[in-house]
Structures
1.
Amino acid sequence: MRYSRQIPIIGDDGQKRIEQAHVAVAGCGGLGSNVITQLSVAGVGNFTIIDGDVIEESNLNRQFVHCGNSGSKALSMKDWILRNNPDAKVKVMDVSLNEENVNEFISSAEIVVDCLDNNETRSSLNDACVKRNIPMVHSGINGMYGQVTFIKPGITPCLSCFLGKGDNERSSIGSAVAVIGSIEANEVLKYITGVGEVLTNQLLLIDLLSNSFEKVPINRREDCPVCGHLHNGR
């Protein structure tokens, strides 16, 4: 009964795939709060989550998962997942993502979700996903602007093909984060179930000040130092 409203859309097989799926989510902040909420209530059965931050009052305008809690964001997120889906299995890494632990983080995942707030850490995650041929959904937000794309190593551009170094993302409002995080979660569910088309070779640009959504084509760089050597997904 819990999933009776979504099974007509994704089918019984789609629901089984969701329940068997293993999703790795990098970041338990604003984007992570929305992505993980949508995935857990949809029935995703296995999570790996990583975040080394602790909860601060300034987080709570957008990180609703942590309201009333203190301490580790990752442990708070685990409790939230199990409240939404008591049958889920959750591996927690209560550390900041880096080059030393990124391979452990993605080792069991069939898809990775980028809910990070800085491009330096994203680069480490991107490199590891390309090397292991694991798809990743990327999103970023700054104020009322955001972007989402689906990365399939060797098929689509990786982050290194189009993303600059940039600054850390510090300014955001909860309603905007919810929209962009929900789109990101939807990309994950479409990939797992095979229903619909994911954002391959396209960057969805979102301007919530003007309610503008634009899909911009993006291409692989043959000289990309991360994925330029790959051909047809190999």
2.
Amino acid sequence: MSLWARWRRWREQRQLQRFAIPEPLWHALLASYPFIARRSAADLAELRRLCSLFLARKRFHTSGELQLTDAMALAVAAQACLPVLRLDLALYDGTVGIVLHPGEVLAPREEVDEHGVVHQWDEVLAGEAMPGGPLMLSWEAVQQPDDPEQPVFNVVVHEFVHLLDLRHGGDANGLPEISDPALRQRWLAELPLAWDRFADRVAHREPSCIDPYGSAALDEFFAVAAEALFVAPQELRAEDPPLYALLAAYFRQDPAGA
């Protein structure tokens, strides 16, 4: 083992010890988020390990009168670590700061159309991921309970999947970094087809476990489909088996079978 590898291993062990998650805090998390508790014992053990490393490497901030607690930080960490459970936590290294707001945020937007006219408006956000910048989350949205009668909504998974999409250096486009050439070609061929199938269901007002917001753009479809994969995997697999299989191949997880 090289000196660098030994140093990294020593650093990781220090972080795991310093940010070890107490049993009561971990069990409270599982009680609050049943879709996490349903994972296998092996998955939960790895998730708990990643949560400690995540909490060691990220910096949480709050706005307004919101007071950060250990339970809040762990709730974000656990849901953020689900997408990289079998990948690499280093995929999030480009983002260190996480800002929690009490509720939704009004973000000023500006766009110049093809005629040179400037359009300005305020966009209501429950979360936002920016390349190299802090990731913003509404704590109210993070706590939103699952409703089996509604499409899946999980703002933490959504925004952290956007970070995976942003790693190529440009805008999010629904194509995360995929080192396996065969899987990359499969992704390029199959994800747009799945998006088309989903947009057709939305247009015909057919029920779906995927948030209809995903019909707006391919990058948003990737993010909301990932929400469904981790929160309602059986429902996603039943609704669109090829999409489920594609996402499972990329994330190297089979939540419906776990």
3.
Amino acid sequence: MLNPLTDSPPDWRRRWALLLEKIERVQSPDQGQALLSELSHPRAPTVLAFANAHAMNSMAVSAPFFEAMRSADRVLRDGSGMATLFKLLRMEPGLNLNGTDLIPRLIRAFDGRGIALFGTREPFLEKAAQRVREELAPHSKLVRANGFLDAGTYSLLAATHRPALIVLGMGMPRQEEIAVQLRAALDFPCLIVCGGAIIDFLGGKTPRAPLWMRKAGLEWVFRLALEPRRLFQRYVIGNPLFLTRALRLASSNNR
């Protein structure tokens, strides 16, 4: 049985290469604003995913997760690890469009239209909903559900309330797999966002790192200090593994 961090099937390089081709790299604030405008006016059920070092490591060992990521309609670069990978491959990484910063901007852009928050648990879910109502989208109707229900329940809620924006805060790989199922089940325009810990951040369960750490690409250090047991595998083992794979991919490409 594959260890999710240390073992890889022989085709992990192909998976990485295919997803790297799909990632949109935004090179300027103007392009970022144009992207935000596009995302806030979906013409069909549209899945937005974020590729970070943890996603790449998980994708290397999980074919279903790779397929879910690859099938997303839009994939954005998230984190300094991905910037390092692109630079090793002699590609311009573009702006860091991490979900924790981008998703609140998206919620503001959807103000006045229906919004669904699917993820985390109470009381943090209600606190996140309250923040959305008070600060980000005061004119929107909200529907919310915890992150531990089956895909059919989320599909039924979405079909009933028809939100224009659906934010999933369930963590990888579950949210990406749920997103694909939602897209297949819904028949109205909406943006389905794979948001990771965003609902926890909005609900106050997980604090943000100081701004200087975020700008330096060190928010992962802050999160590791807060939750060392839960995030040890992801960061202490996962980050060096990601860098090793990045170097191996770059070396094979440069031969």
4.
Amino acid sequence: MIRIDTGMALAAGLGTRMRPLTNDRPKALVEVDGKVLLDWALERFEAAGVTHTIINVHHFADAMQAHIEAHPRAAKLTISDERAEVLETGGGVVKALPLLGEDPVFISNIDAIWVDGPEAELDRMRAAWDGDRMDVLLLLAPMEATLGFDGAGDFFLGEDGRVSWRGEAARAPFAYAGVQIMKPSIMAGRPQVRFSMTEVWRDLVPRGRVYGLPMQSFWMHVGDPQAVKAAEARLAR
């Protein structure tokens, strides 16, 4: 199994759907079951052997900086400052490229949580990673094992592990679960402007370079106050 030393937590979003919980704090500092969303992601990284995590900040950036500097692992955390302009998921990764290095990295949203089973999902991803075939490996949530996701699914998964878009289909069996392993080189040369990582995947999927791994755990997308309550109720059970 390869080592992945570096991760990035995408934590700069405005969290508008999470209001009123984000009226006085960033989405990343909203608590679920007594733990802020950012720390759910950081703990997964640490358990997977990540030794250096980049965290982008924009909304309530001073509060984010204070939380990061007070974190027990603060020495292993680095801020990518987007105070001047929020760059979304793709632009945020481009801005952070000098911090990410050249080896494959974990990139994680902060609005997805789950409880790992006997084998941690990020360990399963590392075991499945094959850099000769893959530029991106997406963690996928089976639609029947999700909470808080109101879409029709994002991807189909081929027998060879490659993903294809839902396209015109009414539904697809898998949702993107918010974590990917990515080669930083796929972002080289892209402009540091506001854009989504989805644009990068749309370039790479037709080339057969984007793969998916179905989760074994139940996935909870925590994107609004109702989803916070539902996730806490499930965790309590």
